[in-house]
């Protein structure tokens, strides 16, 4: 079975593993022990102690916080119960004018702001931009991911939550 | 009549029996144990490798027979081997879209009584390009031949090529102006086009008299038939070696193993749960020539997608809430939707070689009837189905990537890529002949970023895993235009910690013709369709075409004065306007206009990919290199990424790390100052929703989605705490 050290996984996640090695990881059979090493790498990255149960984005994790399972920013800010859409507890910047779109697309073709806007979802504490939605005006904010956490741990990982 | 099926049952009854067994046991053809695999795993694997080698070798041979640069240069073809019932056993590399489309074609013939009429005999050749029977679009022309051994049907060999000319209302293959089936070109509807291993002369004559450049289609037919015969003979020789009974059993076990492998791979790479995403497609047609009265002037399509990964590893994609089919060429059939799923899965999950219909059986598509994904009218056009199909599967790439990130396989997370606008043309060639062709340099757009690195620059499209733009010189041989520029488009990748891949722009001089019609299709137009992930921005749109009619380029060249080779980075004044005299035209969206002639200049650009991660985390050193190499402008590096650049003694950009740190701290503070709680935004936006204070196309989009989907209506109403039906469909019955 393929397996990598925690250090290799840490470099891979950080994007600092040299490309030839990364390419070999991509081409080889997948390492079945990846998940827990990955979570351990991420746990080292955060300053808080609550155990990470599942990463949902680059700096966003579901973690066990006392009796609750919450979506938490890497900085520690909690977006509440993981079963609810964390975006509804975030801060938002909406770009729906040519002027504000031009700030991101200074020299390119941009969409018609009457047809489409950009929504930036930001951690209200540290200012990390966690997601960007491009949507028609009026489109409901999407709930990206509702993991089957119990099923994942019990049936796929073979470990209790 | 059929010579003889391999089992005692007629092939139609055998197909029904196979489906019943799958239904009852959950396993392909009722195969609950992989006996042959367990008996001798090495023999089992070796045989599958051989089958795949037959396919790859047949495809390479076919590419050398073909005259089409699309097939020869770009590799727009695939070949495969099927069971007698039409299930894919093994495929070559190539356009992996067609794992299951040829399967649908074979099954359609079986279900429609082809055993009796027109009969299925050794040496027969059947062709199809009807998407409602089983292909993606008219230019995807497929040929299959039955494989008989000892007088019994033991399988099928099949091949598909993407044709550059389909004889439609506009020249080329992806006939953008088709608004009904009747304008898409030459249809071959599951027809017997050859007997005794020979293509019928009357079929060739039909092609010659209905296509602008029949050489592509006809030689591709020969290439496909040759590859099918090659595979057929290889399979027959293999059966001589291993025995017919072994073949019949092992070919089915390969498929069941493929099904199990797909489920296992999903359990290994992903996280079960519900994933959601959406994208949009905008099409600007109002006032453009050639659009018939049936077509709506401008369209905005929403594409919400919900993906469920079950704990047994099945992937279910649900398109509920998407838009109805329309009088345009962008509708898609279930066969095309299968194709989109397969080309995605083969790139992101099925990378271990065994790709066949087993994987299809481990997935499910929910395609609401009456929508563009599953039209309830078989007369609709599907010629540019990629226009909607690929944005939708771009979302699938991002949803899958979310699952890879959850599981830790960050090296597989890929923001994906949508479609690139294709350019097609026709008229009078530089040789004075009638011509028509699709140009496939769009096969090398920019990819989305990965979760660990930047996207690929000018080297990716979603629809062909072996993206290749072909050689300039080959394309120039086939069209009355000469390249005067092909350049990277700076800032065309979506911004992010890892940026999307950059696209390119081509600039052509029309040459040696007085009649060149240009038509572009599959265009992102007024919306972002290459989204970002995890804080990365979407790639910009590439909606503008620029042309100069009656330019003074020959005079400038004579004087050795500077020419325009690209459009430049000034969104308000292009390089063409700066350097060339003539009648300047800037057109938004699809380019459809009066013919061009010698001396005109034309530009066409392609999509970049979306970005990954927060822009303020991008590596300053890498960004300096991007600026140096023309992938980013200095203005974008500073304004978007917050990376301050100085110049070294040779004038090259170098990152000022201290200044960058200060600037980024300010940008982060500004971001927080500008942002407001989402709850406040919802409260302020609700009034606009209640008044439906949107552009007409947006309102129409909501009304269409609400009419077709109770789930969309409920979710919209719940989110805004409004009655969506009364807002967008006043007077409609509850």
TrEMBL record, chain A:
Highest taxon of the lineage: Bacteria
InterPro entries in UniProt: Aceto_COase_bsu/gsu
Annotated protein name in UniProt: Acetone carboxylase subunit gamma
Organism: Rhizobium loti (Mesorhizobium loti)
TrEMBL record, chain B:
A single cellular component GO annotation: cytosol
Domain called Hydantoinase B/oxoprolinase: residue spans: 40-614
Gene Ontology biological-process annotations: glutathione metabolic process
Organism superkingdom: Bacteria
Gene Ontology MF terms in the entry: 5-oxoprolinase (ATP-hydrolyzing) activity
Pfam families with a match to the protein in the record: Hydantoinase_B
Protein name: Hydantoin utilization protein B
Organism per entry: Mesorhizobium japonicum (strain LMG 29417 / CECT 9101 / MAFF 303099) (Mesorhizobium loti (strain MAFF 303099))
Taxonomic placement: Bacteria, Pseudomonadati, Pseudomonadota, Alphaproteobacteria, Hyphomicrobiales
């Amino acid at each position: 079975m393929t397996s990598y050290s925690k250090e290799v996984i840490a470099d891979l996640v950080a994007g600092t593993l040299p490309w030839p090695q990364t390419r070999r990881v991509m081409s080889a059979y997948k390492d079945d022990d990846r998940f827990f090493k990955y979570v351990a790498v991420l746990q080292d990255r955060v300053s808080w102690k609550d155990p990470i149960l599942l990463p949902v984005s680059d700096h966003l994790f579901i973690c066990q916080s006392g009796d609750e399972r919450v979506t938490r920013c890497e900085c520690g800010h909690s977006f509440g119960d993981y079963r609810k859409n964390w975006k509804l507890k975030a801060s938002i910047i909406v770009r729906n004018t040519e002027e504000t779109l031009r700030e991101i697309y200074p020299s390119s073709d941009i969409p018609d702001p009457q047809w489409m806007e950009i929504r930036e979802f930001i951690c209200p504490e540290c200012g990390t931009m966690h997601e960007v939605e491009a949507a028609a005006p009026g489109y409901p904010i999407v709930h990206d991911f509702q993991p089957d956490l119990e099923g994942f741990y019990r049936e796929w990982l073979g470990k209790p939550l | 009549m059929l010579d003889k099926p391999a089992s005692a049952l007629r092939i139609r009854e055998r197909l029904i029996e196979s489906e019943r067994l799958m239904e009852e046991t959950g396993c392909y053809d009722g195969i609950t144990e992989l006996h042959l695999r367990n008996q001798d795993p090495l023999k089992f694997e070796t045989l599958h490798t051989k089958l795949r080698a037959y396919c790859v070798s047949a495809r390479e041979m076919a590419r050398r027979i073909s005259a089409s640069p699309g097939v020869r240069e770009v590799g727009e073809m695939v070949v495969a081997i099927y069971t007698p019932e039409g299930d894919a056993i093994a495929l070559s590399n190539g356009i992996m879209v067609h794992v299951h489309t040829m399967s649908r074609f074979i099954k359609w013939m079986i279900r429609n009584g082809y055993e009796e009429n027109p009969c299925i005999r050794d040496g027969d050749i059947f062709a199809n390009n009807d998407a409602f029977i089983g292909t993606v679009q008219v230019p995807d022309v497929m040929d299959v031949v039955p494989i008989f051994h000892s007088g019994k049907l033991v399988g099928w060999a099949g091949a598909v090529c993407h044709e550059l000319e389909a004889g439609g209302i506009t020249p080329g293959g992806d006939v953008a102006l088709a608004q009904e089936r009747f304008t898409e070109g030459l249809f071959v509807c599951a027809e017997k086009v050859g007997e005794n291993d020979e293509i019928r002369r009357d079929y060739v004559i039909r092609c010659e008299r209905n296509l602008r450049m029949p050489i592509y289609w006809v030689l591709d037919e020969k290439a496909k038939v040759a590859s099918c015969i090659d595979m057929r003979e290889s399979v027959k020789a293999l059966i001589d070696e291993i025995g017919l009974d072994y073949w019949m059993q092992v070919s089915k076990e390969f498929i069941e193993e493929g099904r199990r492998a797909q489920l296992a791979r999903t359990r290994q790479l992903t996280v079960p749960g519900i994933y959601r995403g959406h994208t949009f497609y905008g099409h600007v047609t109002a006032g453009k020539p050639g659009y018939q009265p049936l077509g709506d002037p401008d369209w905005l399509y929403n594409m919400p997608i919900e993906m469920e990964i079950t704990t047994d590893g099945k992937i279910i994609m649900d398109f509920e809430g998407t838009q109805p089919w329309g009088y345009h060429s962008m509708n898609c059939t279930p066969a095309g939707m299968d194709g989109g799923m397969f080309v995605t899965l083969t790139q992101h999950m099925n990378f271990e070689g065994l790709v066949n219909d087993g994987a299809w059986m481990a997935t499910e598509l929910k395609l609401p009837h009456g929508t563009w994904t599953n039209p309830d009218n078989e007369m609709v056009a599907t010629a540019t189905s990629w226009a909607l199909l690929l944005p939708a599967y771009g979302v699938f790439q991002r949803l899958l990537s979310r699952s890879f990130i959850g599981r830790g396989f960050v090296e597989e997370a890929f923001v994906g890529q949508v479609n690139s606008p294709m350019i097609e043309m026709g008229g009078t060639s530089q040789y004075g002949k009638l011509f028509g062709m699709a140009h496939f340099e769009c096969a090398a757009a920019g990819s989305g970023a990965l979760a660990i690195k930047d996207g690929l620059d000018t080297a990716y499209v979603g629809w062909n895993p072996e993206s290749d733009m072909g050689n300039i010189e080959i394309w120039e041989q086939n069209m009355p235009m000469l390249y005067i520029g092909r350049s990277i488009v700076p800032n065309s990748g979506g911004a992010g910690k890892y940026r999307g891949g950059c696209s390119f722009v081509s600039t052509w001089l029309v040459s040696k013709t007085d009649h060149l019609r240009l038509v572009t299709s599959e265009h992102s137009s007024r919306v972002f369709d290459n989204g970002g992930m995890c804080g990365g921005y979407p790639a910009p749109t590439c909606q503008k075409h620029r042309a100069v009619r009656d330019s003074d380029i020959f005079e400038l060249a004579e004087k050795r004065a500077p020419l325009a080779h690209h459009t430049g980075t000034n969104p308000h004044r292009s390089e063409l306007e700066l350097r060339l005299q003539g009648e300047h035209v800037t057109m938004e969206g699809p380019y459809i206009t009066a013919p061009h002639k010698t001396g005109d200049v034309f530009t066409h650009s392609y999509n970049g990919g979306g970005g990954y991660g927060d822009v303020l985390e991008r590596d300053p050193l890498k960004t300096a290199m991007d600026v140096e190499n023309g992938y980013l402008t200095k203005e974008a590096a500073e304004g978007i990424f917050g990376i301050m650049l100085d110049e070294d003694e040779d004038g090259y950009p170098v990152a000022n790390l201290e200044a960058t740190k200060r600037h980024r701290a300010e940008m982060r503070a500004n971001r927080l100052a500008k942002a407001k709680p989402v709850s406040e935004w919802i409260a302020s936006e609700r009034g606009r929703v209640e008044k439906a204070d949107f552009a007409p196309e947006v309102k129409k989009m909501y009304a269409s989605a609400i009419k077709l989907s109770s789930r969309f209506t409920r979710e919209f109403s719940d989110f805004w705490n409004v009655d969506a039906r009364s807002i967008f469909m006043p007077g409609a019955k509850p």
